[in-house]
Amino acid sequence: MRIWSVHPRYLDRQALVACWRETLLAQKVLCGETRGYTRHPQLERFQAQIDPVASIGVYLEGIAVEADARGYRFDRSRIRRPDAIAAQIDVTDGQLAVEWRHLRSKLAARSPEVLTRWQDVTSPDPHPSFRVVDGPPATWERAS
Length: 144
Hints:
Layout: H1 13-30, H2 44-47, H3 52-69, E1 89-92, H4 93-110, H5 112-117, E2 130-133
Parallel strand pairs: 1-2
């Protein structure tokens, strides 16, 4: 499961669709509707919020906005709290750097044209649900 901290504009089609599906699964976990993935480390940052379901809903809405911009039709009716208001979640600049390297390696292999579009970006913007703070990668990060 990869719930990207980088802004969805940087994701290629495959990553955007996978992020949508995986975050919908994360939403089910947070709603107690599945027994799997309940301890997935990427859920920690949502579980730590006052209203985890609202936080994941806001995240999903951000993915859907990017999908709309590309002409995709993601089913917003699947978002539990599409109009929720949730505080931004802190993400460290170290975490963004790890994800940026990871995404760039994926883009190099499967979507070099997308990688070319973002070749001058050294510090990516975060997903709108996140606020950048100084710090190392998250303790839950598993990327090498």
